[in-house]
Specification:
It catalyses: 3'-dephospho-CoA + ATP = 2'-(5''-triphospho-alpha-D-ribosyl)-3'-dephospho-CoA + adenine. Its EC number is 2.4.2.52. GO terms for molecular function: ATP binding; glycosyltransferase activity; triphosphoribosyl-dephospho-CoA synthase activity. The chain has one domain. By secondary structure, it is mostly helical.
């Protein structure tokens, strides 16, 4: 476990009390609106990416019969105010219990908008925590770098996130049931560790692809497959068990071993994986949520430079 002092050094974070007082409420609202816009844009970027194995896109519904791109759009529209509220809450130093209440309300709004379909439960947690961290960082006068966002999250809410990861929950989600049955980690454990799959896996994959001159689509495809290779996706375990998870990992490993999107036939390979995943009802939704989180972190860093 990294100490708070070390995290502050990594993220260049102080207590920020005097800095926070310099900002007017209008400034806080404007910043939170912009962060919310970037969060929704990140979800939209993930939705529009294609070909994605087994996942919903504007092209088709992947492995799903209960949702399509329109369902996701309704969900995003319902979540836009949540991202603003949780960013403001982070700015105002809200406790994790307060952030959690906002997340629970957002989930209810999502389910109402989608007629009971879970489109973005994982994203409500991961992108919500990033929005809160962005608000807290800006209040402290801290740059919105990936290192700073992660440090803020762990310093301010790390202990509460760790306790949250150990809770059983009064109404266990599919992710909690999968974690209990197959001993795999999920969104709660990710949060308690400061979203390592985002900062240590997905973002480096995005940056590596960008460095070699990949397009935005290619960057995101490479990052998605890298996440599929590394995480234990509760969505996959819920739908297809360990056997399905093995298929996902094998396809991801093969795709990346061939060079990912640097390979001349990557598009055909990704389409083949998509067809296989649909046939087996596989949908790596956890990896998709984390990809959206990576896109948000990138956008927040770019916002700082603008």
């Amino acid at each position: 476990m990294i100490s708070a002092t070390a995290l502050r050094k990594i993220g260049d974070i102080g207590d920020g009390a005097q800095t926070a007082r310099r900002f007017s409420r209008a400034t806080q609202r404007n910043f939170s609106c912009e962060v919310a816009r970037l969060a929704v844009r990140a979800l939209h970027a993930e939705l529009c990416l294609y070909p994605k194995p087994g996942l919903v896109s504007p092209v088709d519904s992947g492995s799903h019969t209960d949702m399509d791109a329109g369902t996701f759009m309704r969900s995003m529209f319902a979540l836009r105010h949540y991202f603003k509220k949780i960013c403001l809450a982070g700015w105002r130093d809200a406790s994790f219990s307060q952030l959690k209440k906002l997340g629970i309300a957002a989930e209810a709004g999502m389910l109402k908008a989608t007629h009971g379909v879970n489109t973005h439960r994982g994203a409500i947690f991961s992108l919500g925590m990033l929005c809160a961290a962005a608000g807290r960082a800006r209040a402290q006068g801290t740059a919105l770098t990936p290192a700073a966002l992660r440090a803020v999250m762990l310093i301010r809410w790390g202990e509460e996130l760790a306790r949250h990861a150990g809770e059983d929950g009064s109404t266990p989600s599919n992710g909690l049931r999968v974690a209990a049955r197959y001993a795999v980690s999920g969104a709660r454990e990710e949060g308690a560790l400061g979203l390592p799959s985002v900062f240590d896996v997905g973002l480096p994959a995005l940056l590596a692809a960008r460095k070699r001159g990949a397009t935005v689509t290619e960057e995101r495809i490479d990052a998605l497959y890298t996440l599929m290779e590394h995480i234990s996706d509760s969505n996959v375990y819920h739908r297809a068990g360990p056997q399905g998870a093995q298929i996902v990992r094998e396809h991801a490993e093969r795709f990346l071993a061939q060079g990912g999107t640097a390979h001349a036939n990557w598009h055909a390979d990704a389409l083949h994986s998509h067809q296989v995943f649909v046939r087996h009802r596989l949908s790596p939704g956890g990896a998709a949520d984390l990809l959206a989180a990576c896109c948000l972190v990138q956008s927040l860093a770019a916002l700082e430079k603008a």
